[in-house]
Amino acid sequence: MTPVTSFSGQRVFVFGLGGSGLATALALIAGGAHVTAWDDGEKGREAAHAAGVPVADLREQDWHGVDALVLSPGVPLTHPEPHWSVYLARAAGVEIIGDIELFVRERRSIAPDAPFIAITGTNGKSTTTVLIAHILREAGYDVQLGGNIGTAILSLEPPSPARVHVVECSSFQIDLTPTLDPTVGIHLNLTPDHIDRHGSMELYAAIKERLVAASGTAIIGVDDGWSAAIAERVAAAGRHVVPVSVRQTLATGFSVLGDKILRDGVAVADLAGIGSLRGRHNAQNAAAAFAAVTAIGVSDADAARGLATFPGLAHRMEAVGRAGNVLFVNDSKATNADAAAKALGSFDRIFWIVGGRPKEGGIASLTEYFPKIIHAYLIGESSPDFARTLDGVVPYTLSGTLDQAVVEAARAAGGDGAGEAVVLLSPACASYDQFPNFEVRGNRFREAVQALPQVQTDLR
């Protein structure tokens, strides 16, 4: 835990008592703050009460003299409508912040030189975050990994000069962190997402920009227009910007040419044969991670060794089995078309399992990858719409369920006889029509693959 001593003696309200909210309340109490917490759900209130956190309905409290409202990132701050706690805080002139803001203030208070790497981007941030942590651990560093990736930041050990915090940040979290100032900030890319929570693409981009705007070193992917504009503004403001590109060779910064990562045009690492980092999108993640770790003192040789031993993340281009010439890949995390494009671009002969609860635009944007798809297996609510998109262009089967799709795709790919093939779960959809989340969907895929005859699961 990181006790939040910077709020010692202050009166703090906490709303939202899920994993990060409860950790926040306990960290504030441990640091000497006077905390009152609430959640709209009874389960969260009961968990907080059992942990010794004072629980009371904030609608019935006196907001005069409250120093801060710490809001869970899952609670609407602005769109589609501010939560009632936000209205109360604003009416009383109370600052609204999140748990990452508490961490950055604590870091400035107790260990301002403690290394802190923060990562954001529409796609790839989890892989990049875990990859950075892996490289640092392989190089002998004391690493604390958390944030949006699943471990609440205040559950981690306190910042210190001998410890590196590697923290994934969502746009929701950044929006609640007005003084975010990491040692190294990484912004990977920007495509439309969470517009319902931010109101417009312009506001979404502005929030993402905050992560790198006050970074000591700002590592910014420049392969989309929004991010390239962010890099220009941050550089113009006098920050040290390190651009990253997988589409052009940069004279200054990091780029990828074939399988080689280049710094200022000179090769520093080779991604050939690293199955966990297949595809152009993972090349961008790897280049950004290499830039980040070397910025805080890791040698090029140690960074390259860390890349080579990276095991990858579950549900993100995860190879889960092989049967003869057929590789089975779990990319359940691809919950929109842009994410699915990364996987489709990484293979040549694809038996594609796709579908679920569709996102706006469906899969129409993926037409450039259709020639790679030998056959598509449609599952979930999106099946009728996706069938119309594929009709006459890509052969498809209305499989209905994931289990049925795995059996059908494995049979077809195994009997194809035309060389290496991949059965790829990259749904381009949310999971909520058939599964509670993408993790459960990915686990079901893995189990279905492992139940097939003659599947090898040790792919080392």
Helix content: 25-40%
> Main sheet?
9 strands, mixed
Instruction: Provide the CATH architecture of the largest domain.
Output: 3-Layer(aba) Sandwich
Mean pLDDT reading: 95
Transmembrane segments: 12-33
Function: Cell wall formation. Catalyzes the addition of glutamate to the nucleotide precursor UDP-N-acetylmuramoyl-L-alanine (UMA).
GO cellular component, one term: cytoplasm
Family: Belongs to the MurCDEF family.
Please give a quick description of this structure:
ATP binds at residues 121-127. This protein is of the alpha/beta class. The protein is built from 15 helices and 21 strands.
Question: What topology does this entry show?
Answer:
Layout lengths: L10 E5 L3 H12 L3 E5 L3 H9 L17 E4 L12 H9 L2 E3 L1 H12 L5 E5 L4 H14 L3 E6 L15 E6 L2 H5 L8 E4 L7 H4 L2 H13 L3 E5 L3 H12 L3 E6 L8 E4 L2 E4 L2 E5 L8 H17 L4 H9 L9 E6 L2 E5 L6 H8 L5 E5 L2 E2 L14 E7 L3 H8 L5 E5 L1 H13 L6 E5 L3 E2 L7 H13 L10
Parallel strand pairs: 1-2, 1-3, 3-4, 5-7, 5-8, 6-7, 8-9, 9-10, 10-11, 15-20, 16-18, 16-20, 18-19
Antiparallel strand pairs: 11-12, 12-13, 14-15, 17-21
Task: Characterize the structure shown.
This protein is α/β, with parallel strands linked by helices and 460 residues long. The chain folds into 3 domains: 5-97, NAD(P)-binding Rossmann-like Domain (Rossmann fold, 3-Layer(aba) Sandwich); 101-308, Mur-like, catalytic domain (UDP-N-acetylmuramoyl-L-alanine:D-glutamate ligase), CATH 3.40.1190.10; 318-450, Mur ligase, C-terminal domain (Protein-Tyrosine Phosphatase, Chain A, Alpha-Beta Complex), CATH 3.90.190.20. 34% of the residues lie in helices and 22% in strands. It contains 15 helices and 21 strands. The protein has helices spanning 19-30, 42-50, 84-92, 99-110, 125-138, 171-175, 195-198, 201-213, 225-236, 279-295, 300-308, 337-344, 383-390, 402-414, 438-450, and strands spanning 11-15, 34-38, 68-71, 95-97, 116-120, 142-147, 163-168, 184-187, 217-221, 240-245, 254-257, 260-263, 266-270, 318-323, 326-330, 350-354, 357-358, 373-379, 396-400, 421-425, 429-430. The two termini are 36 Å apart. The model has no long low-confidence stretch (mean pLDDT 95).
